[in-house]
Fold:
Amino acid sequence: MIVNSREVEISNLKSEVKKYHDGGYRFVTETCLNLEDKFKIIYTFAIGYDLENIHIITDGKNVPSVSDIYSCALAVENEIKELFGVEFDGLAVDFGGDFMLGESSPISPQADIEIIRREKGGKNE
Amino acid sequence: MLDMLKSVFSNLSRKPVTRMYPYEERKPFDINRGHLENNIDECIFCGMCQRVCPSNCIKVDRKTSVWEYNPFECVLCGVCVEKCPKKCLKLDVHYRSCTDKKYNIHLEKHDDSEKAGA
Amino acid sequence: MSDKSTIPFGPQHPVLPEPIHLKLVVEDEKVVEAYPAFGFVHRGLETLAQKKDFNQMVYVVERVCGICSCMHGQDYCEAIEELMGVQVPVRAEYLRTIWAELHRIHSHLLWLGLFADAFGFENLFMQTWKIREKIMDILEATSGNRVIISVNIVGGVRKDINSEQAKWILKELDDVEEQLKDINDVVMNNYTVKERTVGIGVLTKEEAYELGATGPMAKGSGVDLDLRTTGYAAYKYLDFEPIVEKDGDSYARNLVRMREIFQSIDLIRQALSKMPEGDINVPVKGNPPAGEVISRLEQSRGEVVYYIKSNGTKFLDRLRIRTPTFANIPALLKILPGSQLQDVPVLILTIDPCISCTER
Structure:
C-alpha cells in the first residue's frame, strides 16, 4: 500500500491518537525516519485490514508518548528512544536504555544526528 | 493417557529414521547449492559477479586477470551464477569440507592458464 | 507475608535457543512483574538497506529470521514491486504461496517440538521434528537450500517446480498428513499436554486486540485477523477460512497452530492443482521511484509490516520491519504477571518467539 500519511501537529497528536483508539482502531506500529536534522515519526493504525497513517515532524525532544492510550506502543517507543535517541514524555514503562541496547553499546546507532549523549561512566540519560 | 502408544509400537517395528552419518551419506539433491566453482579458462573478468553479490565476497581484477573469492563470507545465494554472461560460474552440489583455517580462493588466468589455490 | 525476589530468565535458557532476557520479579512461586531486555542479536539490518542496492537487499531481509525467511523476502519483494508498478506472473504468485505455506508448516512443527520440549515431552518433540524433516527435504529439492531458500526476487521467483516434483510433493504431503494425524491426537487429548496448557496464560479477545497481538496469539483469543484473506500472492485464487479459537489460553493457541498445519497442506494441494503454466519472473528495469510503501503479509507468527521509503536511487532511504514477535511482546508481558514460575517457559514459547526477528 502506497503510504499517504497526514501530518499532525505535535500538540494535537494525543487527541488524534485518542480518536483512532476510540474508533476501534488497532495499533500497528510507529516508524522513525531520519530527516535532515529532524525526525519524522509515522504512526500506523489498522481497522480490519485497512491501514491509516499519521505522522509528526519533531526535533527529537519531548515527543508525547501514546503509550498511555495504546499500552502496546511502549515497546516500539522504547526501541525508537534507544535506536534514534528521540525522547518521549510520559512513557508508560521506561526501560531506561536496557530494552534493545546494552551497557556498552553505541548510543542511538540508527540516528544521523546525536541528541542523547552518554554521561561519563554511566548509562543513557 | 495412551495416545502415544500407537506411534510407540509402530516405531518399534520400523527402521531408524536417522542415518549413521559418517558411514552413510544422503545423496544431495540435483539443485543443491553446495559450493561455488569458477572455470577460470572461460572467465572474461567482466566483474558482474562482484557487482551483484549481496555479501561482497567476490573480487575481480580485470587488469591482472585475478578472480578472488572468500568462501566464508559467501551466502550461497547463487545470484552470480545466474548473472554470469559466460556461464563459467557454477554451483556444485557437494558442500565444501570443514576446515580449521580460513582461506581465500585465488584464481588467475595467464596465457598458460594456471590455477593457484591459497 | 513473603518477600519479592528477582530471577533472571535467559539469555541462555535450556528451553529457548534464542537470546531473550527477562527479569522476573517473583513472590514465592508467583510472577508479579516481568521486564524484557533484547538486543543480544541486533545486527543493524535496517541500516544496511542504505548500503546495499535494492536487489541485494532481498538476500539480506531473508536473513532477518531463518524460520520465516521466505516470507520476509516475499513481503520485501511485494513492497518494491508495488512501488515500481511491476505485475508478477501468476505462476510466480502460486510458487510464492507454495513455498510460504511450506515454511508455515515447518515453522509450526518446529514450534510444536520446542513447545513439547518446554514441558518435558521429549517424545513428542522427536516425532514432530521427524515429520518436519520431510518438509525440509521438499524445500531443499525445490530450491536448493534447506532453510534460507532464496527463491524470491523483485519481479517473481528464481526456481520453478516441475510436474514431476509436484507429484512427489503431493506424495510426501500425504505421508506428512498421515503421520500428523497420529500426533494430532496427542496434542489435542494428551493428559500431559492438557495439564500444562489448558487455562494457562489466558488472553481475552479485548486484550488481544488492544495489545495489538497478531497471528496465532490473536487467533487463539478469537480475533478474526488473517491477512491471507486480503488476497495477496495466490491466496485470492484459493479457498480457505481463517482458523480461530475462542478460549485464549495456551491450549487454544496450540490448536490454532496445529489446525493451521492441516490448512497449509490443503492450501498447497489446491495451489499445485490450480497452478497455470507460464513465466516465473519478469525483468525489472531501473530503480524504484521515490515514494513510501507499506506491505504486509501473514507469516507463521502473524502480521509482518514492511515500510520502505525510496528516494529514486538504487539504495533505499529507510527500511523498517515490524515483525510479528515484536507485536506479541506486549501480550506476553500481559500474561506473564500472575503466572507460576514453572509456566514461564510455556508462556514464552506460546507466543512462538523469534528473537532474531524482533531485533533485526
Notes: Chains A and B do not touch (no CB pair under 8 Å).
